[in-house]
Design goal:
The complex is a heterotetramer. Chain A is mostly helical. Chain A has helices at 3-24, 28-48, 52-77, 92-111, 128-135, 139-160, 174-184. In chain A, helix 1 packs antiparallel against helix 2 (28-48). By secondary structure, chain C is mainly α. In chain C, 62% of the residues are buried. In chain D, helix 1 packs antiparallel against helix 2, helix 2 crosses helix 12 and helix 9 runs antiparallel to helix 11 (253-278). The chains are: A mainly alpha, B mainly alpha, C mainly alpha, D mainly alpha.
Chain lengths: 189, 638, 104, 346
């Protein structure tokens, strides 16, 4: 077994186990931490796939932004009583069946699909190539994504703003809000 | 000016609409509007007449009105020639005079404004009629004047007789109009156009000829018979005297009733080719003339005398046309319009003073109503054909036109004699002698200036209007109003003397009987009692119609009524009862089965919905589950 | 064992994706559902980058698309978490089960 | 003459020959070489931190007109070692209601993340563990794990002060990461490379230092980096007057030491990155490259200490407002102008 295989299987193991923990952990905070681990594993896979730029971006954006936002939200919304509650709904058996069925379907399809593998030397790992593509072939999607990000930024502000158009119960309940937040935002016992 | 002549009828139209919609609350403003509109028409008409006087060539201005494809298009337009110019003058002048006169005559009427609206409507229609360059527009306005006539005859609709008279006039003339319409359709079918120019051209170049032309011409003449009150459709005109007197003067003496004459005159080229039709026209004319004159001898209602006089004179004109005397007829039409309008307005003035129509209750009014009396006398002299008044010149030409036919000439002279007699009978009974009803006479007084003014103006016209047709004028009436070539009538001294003497003798007889009382009319009446009664009852025309048409009609109506009541109603009611029974059955069926089914559908649907709605849980995860499950299932099904 | 090839990555991607599907279908906590969705995103990204590496190595198109996916995921997470916070304000909880007021 | 690159190379060769002699492949050679390098870096980091802790005490003392530690060693130079020994000897207390797993991993992650940055920092000519071609991006990515550790610590401590500290830390780091990345991007526009070695090699002359071309970028970086390592005036996550000690409230002993280490490591790495990006890295005349690097970096560290003991702490809303409403637009503007100028010069 060569090093690449070793690394791959290690990363695959890390990713899969973390993913399983994400979906099965009773503690939502643990889920978030395992999500970070899974994302980190994926970033490692990217490195293995000779896409270091993407790996860095994965860590920077997923771990540095999305995961932190999620943890942030978890901290804002989790409550003491939560961990004692059922963390899954009644779809567990069926969902499990469907997921496994889907997995079988996909693996079966994968098994039966010949993929034309090219032997050319990979390029574009360091970002030069990607930058060129972003600003030439994919300039339109690039611009659209930037607009999308701006829109997301603004909409998130508008949605979550407490006294905004969609805001919850007005500024009058701030003390109440704070108290509840501080009480409720404890991890489970 | 000529090409814009179509604006002439527009002014009265505007006046009518304005009065009806806006100013009807203000009496004087309404009257002023009507008079102003008619004044414009009056001035314009005279201006046109002066132009045409110098250049009698016909001018036409038309535009496309209906374009229904290559084979069917109807242009509307106006035609201005001598005849039109003359008619314009007649119509606008008399209409203006009557408008002014009506201000005084209708002064106390509660529907004063509406009256002037109707007058304006009539003015619009009549002016359009004479301006039209085709039969189609003429027919439209022909019907419009009929409508105005109906409205004005029945103006005092609260009076049963007036209301009936209006209906009678309308229905009677409708009979003639039907013929007119058929004639139009025949002409259109044959010529493909209704323009006078095209129809006349078709007649002249021979495409329209023979029996077809004769029938078409007679159909057109049927319209004229109705409108111009010729035998046998004359019965409506005397009854039309139920309308206000100025209306009688305008519509039923001077203008509308001559529309029939005008129609025949316009179509005279047709009649010139269709000689058989011409003879029918001539005979109808002289019979009408004679019959109306004889009836006029014995009538006691001042307006009815004048009405029969009108019918008689219209018969004159028709006869002249039938004999080809176009210029003579038209000349007489013009002069007659003036003096007959004057007579009617004078009669109106009298009626206004004494509040009765019966000449037996009048008498001795000369001293009380000098202007009315004098102007009435002038008109009477004019109609009697006394030189040099206008009637003399025109009647002279009619006599000259009938000179070629001894029978017609004799009858013409006889009618002339009777005309002179009954006019002066009327005059003497009304204005001279002693008042027979002192109560009425004492309150009599001269009419206001708005009424006497038109009288005097028309009297002036009655005197001078004949001069334009004096035979020795180089450029006179006949140089302007003619068909084909200008026809200058020679002055026949003998004819003139005969006609004048006939007229004078009629006057003399009336003088003896009703002024000097040298001959007692009662005795004469008694000696020829049968004839007198017949004449007094107007040859029993109305009664004959009653027996011949109306009663059988009623009988048939009763029969049909019985049939309707018994059979049809029975069937209908039976069907109704059956329907109700069937409806009840249906209702029961509906309520039980259909409603049950409908409600059942609703209940089932609701139950289904209540069951199925659980599928829509509002939970995204369930939906996502379905999505992924479907993916797997689809793959498995492959 | 054969050398690591594209099929290894794709199989791994499928496994991660199905784990994400399971989590999305079963978790009650809205944030947990979001996490599962992120897992699915990442599975897709693995696929994209694997294809870019093995099928079209000379053009990095797959990596570009993966980068777009990451950006879109960031936007999605932002808005979704804002909504979660709003729901929390209204309902004092973020159980997806209870956020079913769009039904019927 | 005192350059260390030859020494490093020689050590590497020795390792390679040793591993090869043991009959292992080239992959193992690299692995062992990296392991040794990592070990060296860890030792170096520990020494640096020990020095920095002492230095901070001395600097703060001088700023406050005191003398600071004087007893242990020359001018108290060994004071930190004594303190470290004391910390290592202390009982490792784990409070009852903490979330144990996370409580345990939080300091480790923080420390490892802080340490991992050193992989790509060029300490001198040839003194670079791995010259990744995405070097600067790698640093940005790895530093984000620091905040994960802080969050974990704040959450798992089951303490409201710790939690609030975690909150503040997350918000602050995520916010200031954006202007920091943008200010670095200004430099990258010039270098056209993400590799740290490449960046250093472009600044051999004094006038080539990127601080001259990116003065505003440097200022933004300085402010944002200060916030990134949670130092005063941006030390809200651990503001002792408000939150006791923030996310480290419940930690003691070795775990506390790791947080402490991580903080100083971060401070050093921030200064090192600033040196590399803006001040020519290890380039300098006469003296060896590692000396120049250390000199420049320590000056940077001194500036950070100077800030800490000079400026008062910000309020939390001022902190966020400053990041989003001032630094971010400024960074964007800087980037825009930079790009425009580069286009013009080309």
């Amino acid at each position: 077994m060569d090093t690449i295989s070793l690394v791959f299987f290690a990363l695959a193991f890390l990713t899969i186990v973390s993913s399983l923990m994400v979906v099965s952990s009773k503690n939502i905070f643990h889920s978030a931490i395992f999500l970070i681990l899974a994302l980190f594993g994926v970033a490692g896979l990217f490195v293995l796939l000779e896409a270091p730029f993407l790996a860095a971006a994965q860590v920077l954006i997923y771990v540095g932004a999305i995961a932190i936002l999620m943890i942030f939200s978890v901290m804002l919304t989790a409550r003491i009583s939560d961990s004692g509650l059922r963390h899954t709904n009644e779809q567990v058996p069926t969902g499990l069946a469907i997921s496994l069925g889907l997995l079988i379907v996909m693996l079966y399809s994968l098994w039966n699909t010949p993929i034309p593998v090219s032997e050319a030397t990979p390029t574009g790992g360091a970002g030069h190539k990607l930058g060129e593509l972003f600003l030439t072939t994919f300039v339109l999607p690039f611009e659209i994504v930037s607009v999308l990000l701006l829109a997301a930024l603004i909409s998130a502000l508008v949605i979550a703003k407490r006294d905004g158009p969609l805001g919850g119960r007005g500024a009058g309940n701030e003390t109440d809000e704070k108290r509840e937040m501080e009480q409720g935002a404890r991890p489970g016992n | 000016m000529l090409e814009n002549a179509w604006l002439i009828p527009v002014f009265p139209l505007i006046a009518m609409v304005a009065i009806m919609l806006v100013t009807h609350r203000n009496r004087m403003l309404s009257a002023g509007l009507s008079i102003a509109a008619m004044s414009i028409a009056f001035i314009w008409s005279w201006a046109i007449a002066l132009t045409v006087w110098n250049n009698p060539e016909a001018q036409r201005f038309s535009f496309e009105w209906l374009d229904l494809g290559p084979s069917m298009h109807i242009p509307l337009g106006i035609q201005i020639d001598g005849l039109t110019a003359m008619m314009l003058i007649v119509v606008s002048t008399v209409a203006l005079m009557v408008n002014i006169y009506s201000v005084g005559y209708m002064h106390d009427d509660p529907l004063f404004s509406r009256y002037f609206a109707y007058l304006s409507l009539f003015g619009m229609a009549m002016l359009t009629l004479v301006l039209a360059d085709n039969y189609f527009l003429m027919f439209v306005s022909w019907e419009l004047v009929g409508l105005a006539s109906y409205l004005l005859i029945g103006f005092w609709f609260e009076k049963q007789s007036a209301s009936d008279a209006g209906k009678k006039a309308f229905i009677t003339t409708r009979l003639g109009d039907l013929g007119f319409l058929i004639g139009l359709l025949m002409l259109y079918a044959a010529v493909g156009s209704l323009a006078f120019k095209d129809v006349n051209g078709a007649v002249q170049n021979g495409t329209l000829t023979g029996g077809y032309l004769t029938v078409a011409a007679l159909c057109l003449f049927a319209g004229a018979v109705g409108k111009s009150a010729q035998v046998p459709l004359h019965v409506w005109l005397p009854d039309a005297m139920e309308g206000p007197t100025p209306v009688s003067a305008l519509i039923h003496a001077a203008t509308m009733v001559v529309a029939g004459v005008y129609l025949v005159a316009r179509s005279l080229i047709l009649f010139g080719v269709a000689q058989d039709a011409s003879m029918v026209v001539a005979w109808i004319g002289i019979i009408t003339s004679l019959m109306a004159a004889t009836i006029g001898l014995v009538q006691n209602d001042i307006k009815r005398v004048l009405a029969y006089s009108t019918v008689s004179q219209l018969g004159y004109m028709i006869m002249a046309l039938g004999l080809g005397g176009f210029t003579a007829s038209m000349f007489h039409l013009m002069t007659h319009a003036f003096f007959k309008a004057l007579l009617f307005l004078g009669a109106g003035s009298v009626i206004h003073a004494v509040h009765t129509n019966d000449i037996r209750e009048m008498g001795g009014l000369h001293s009380k109503m000098k202007i009315t009396s004098w102007t009435f006398l002038i008109a009477a002299l004019a109609i009697a054909g006394v030189p040099p008044l206008s009637g003399f010149w025109s009647k002279d030409e009619i006599v000259a036109a009938s000179a070629g036919h001894p029978v017609f000439m004799a009858l013409t002279l006889l009618v002339a004699f009777m005309t002179a007699f009954y006019m002066f009978r009327l005059y003497f009974l009304t204005f001279t002698g002693t008042p027979r009803d002192h109560h009425r006479s004492d309150h009599a007084h001269e009419s206001p200036l708005t009424m006497t003014g038109p009288l005097m103006f028309l009297a002036f016209l009655s005197i001078v209007s004949g001069f334009v047709g004096m035979p020795w004028l180089h450029h006179g009436f006949s140089s302007v109003v003619y068909i084909g070539e200008p026809h200058h009538a020679e002055f026949h001294l003998s004819t003139a003397i005969i006609a004048t003497s006939v007229g004078l003798s009629g006057i003399a007889l009336a003088y003896l009987m009703y002024y000097k009382r040298a001959i007692d009319p009662e005795k004469i009446a008694a000696s020829v009692k049968g004839i007198y009664t017949t004449l007094y009852n107007k040859y029993y025309f109305d009664e004959a119609y009653d027996v011949l048409f109306i009663r059988p009609y009623y009988v048939v109506c009763d029969a049909w009524f019985w049939f309707d009541k018994t059979i049809v109603d029975g069937m209908v009611n039976g069907a109704g009862d059956l329907g109700m029974f069937w409806s009840r059955v249906n209702a029961w069926f509906d309520e039980t089965f259909v409603d049950g089914a409908v409600n059942g559908v609703g209940i089932v649907t609701r139950a289904f919905g209540l069951t199925v709605r659980h599928l829509q849980t509002g939970r995204v995860q369930n939906y996502a589950f379905v999505v992924f499950a479907t993916m797997v299932i689809i793959w498995l099904l492959q | 064992m054969a050398a690591i090839g594209i099929n290894h990555f794709l199989a791994l991607s499928a496994v991660v994706f199905c784990i994400g599907v399971y989590g999305m279908l079963t978790r009650r906590n809205a944030i947990a559902v979001l996490m599962a969705v992120e897992l699915m995103f990442n599975a897709v990204n693995i696929t994209l980058v694997a294809f870019a590496r093995y099928v079209t190595p000379e053009t990095a198109t797959g990596q570009v698309v993966a980068a777009f996916t990451i950006a879109v995921a960031a936007a999605e997470a932002t808005v979704a978490l804002a909504i979660v916070l709003l729901i929390y304000q209204h309902h004092r909880g973020i159980d997806v089960d209870k956020v079913n007021f769009m039904k019927w | 003459m005192f350059e260390l690159d030859k020494l490093v190379k020689a050590v590497g060769d020795v390792i390679a020959s040793l591993v090869t002699a043991m009959g292992l492949g080239s992959a193992w050679v690299t692995t062992v070489q990296l392991a040794v390098a990592a070990l060296v870096v860890i030792v170096f980091a520990a020494v640096v931190v020990l020095f920095l802790v002492w230095w901070e005490r001395k600097v703060s003392a001088r700023i406050q007109m005191r003398v600071g530690p004087m007893r242990v060693g020359w001018h108290g130079l060994l004071q930190t070692i004594a303190d470290a020994i004391k910390l290592l000897q202390k009982e490792d207390i784990t409070p009852t209601n903490v979330d144990r797993g996370i409580y345990f991993w939080a300091p480790i992650i923080t420390f490892v993340a802080a340490l991992a940055v050193y992989v790509t920092i060029p300490f001198g000519k040839g003194l670079l563990v791995s010259d990744l071609n995405i070097g600067i991006l790698y640093i940005l990515s790895v530093t984000t794990f620091t905040v994960i550790g802080l969050l974990m610590a704040g959450w798992s401590s089951n303490n409201k002060y710790a939690l609030l500290g975690g909150f503040r830390s997350a918000a602050q780091v995520v916010s200031y990461e954006v202007p920091m990345a943008l200010s670095i991007l200004g430099v990258i526009l010039f270098t056209q490379s993400l590799s740290m070695g490449e960046i250093v090699s472009q600044q051999t002359k004094f006038h080539q230092w990127y601080v001259w071309r990116q003065p505003i970028g440097f200022l933004i970086y300085l402010v944002a980096a200060t916030a990134e390592c949670n130092r005063t005036p941006f030390d809200l996550p651990e503001a002792d007057s408000e939150l006791v000690a923030g996310f480290v409230t419940e930690y003691s002993g070795m775990k506390f030491a790791m947080f402490f280490l991580a903080e100083f490591l971060n401070m050093f790495s921030v200064a090192a990155i600033a040196t590399t990006l803006f001040f020519g890295g290890w380039n300098g005349p006469f003296l060896p490259s590692w000396f120049w690097f250390m000199a420049k970096t320590l000056i940077g560290v001194f500036v950070l200490m100077w800030f800490r003991w000079t400026y008062p702490r910000l309020r939390v809303d001022q902190l966020m407002g400053f990041a989003w409403k001032f630094l971010l637009p400024l960074a964007f503007l800087n980037l825009l102008v930079t790009g425009f100028i580069i286009l013009l010069v080309k």
